[in-house]
Amino acid sequence: MYSITARFNQIVFFTSWTLVVLSLLNQGTAYFFKTGKPTVDLKILSADKFQHYKATYYNGGATDWDQVTFKFSLEADFEPVYNWNLKQLFLYVNVHHEHQQKGYESDCVIYDKIISRPDDPSSWSTSSKLVLKNQRAEYPLKDIHKQLRNATVNFEVWIEVMPYVGYIRREKLGDFEYKMPQQYN
Amino acid sequence: MAEGQSDTFWKSLYIYFNEMDFESQLFVKKIYKIIILTVAIISFIIAFFLERFSVCVYSTIGSSVLCILVLAPAWPMWKKNQPNWQQANQQKQK
């Protein structure tokens, strides 16, 4: 404490240590309160542009495939997950389908969205509900083996929880089955 | 610095803010911890019930900035208890 730089140094790093301890307490107390599971409801409205595509340029060996673009509506309520340690949620819709005879499995993400939590808790009840109507999927579903006609695909809604302090974890919120059309349209 | 050359303005300002009494050094060493810890604990409890962690972080950082401005430089209030220096030895050059 005998010079100005020594005093400045001690105050700054003592403050940093208290902020580290407070952040760990922040993470620790958040687990005691809200650990519920959000509710979600997904309805597939249509499967558009379901065609047999052919490649027009060399793209690594895939010459033709089935491709479909979905339209869906999604309703979700994330209030059970909101606590003061949460920074944002990453929501994505995953399509899982299996080859009928050979046993291939494939996963494809067709839609994703970032939902950030506002700092002021008085607006949590309005900002925690998500309603998407007639939403077109961002990425199409492609199948190299051309087995999508009359197949049963599984729509999964996942959420990735990103806190301010702590581990990032993924949760599956729901499973929804859908039967693809019999012919191309 | 060579003898006979006076200090520049910035160096003498630095020397002024650098030197602090021994008793006030002990006082500063105790009090910055007390201030920052009480502000951190009270604002954490308040922020817990308001569910906003930013309140806690901003108030802790604000209290530390206040401590730096008041406690780190040697203001005149920290120079009140000077030690009793002995008389300078006048018999250097013989």
TrEMBL record, chain A:
It is a single-pass type II membrane protein. It is found in: Endoplasmic reticulum membrane. The keyword Isomerase does not apply. It comes from the Eukaryota. One of its GO terms (cellular component) is signal peptidase complex. GO terms for biological process: protein targeting to ER; signal peptide processing. Keywords: Endoplasmic reticulum, Membrane, Signal-anchor, Transmembrane, Transmembrane helix. Coiled coil: none annotated. Belongs to the SPCS3 family. This is Signal peptidase complex subunit 3.
Automatic annotation (TrEMBL), chain B:
Pfam families: SPC12 (PF06645). It is a multi-pass membrane protein. Keywords: Endoplasmic reticulum, Membrane, Transmembrane, Transmembrane helix. One of its GO terms (biological process) is protein targeting to ER. It comes from the Eukaryota. The chain crosses the membrane at residues 31-50, 55-75. One of its GO terms (cellular component) is signal peptidase complex. It is found in: Endoplasmic reticulum membrane. InterPro entries: Spc1/SPCS1. Belongs to the SPCS1 family. Component of the signal peptidase complex (SPC) which catalyzes the cleavage of N-terminal signal sequences from nascent proteins as they are translocated into the lumen of the endoplasmic reticulum. Dispensable for SPC enzymatic activity. This is Signal peptidase complex subunit 1.
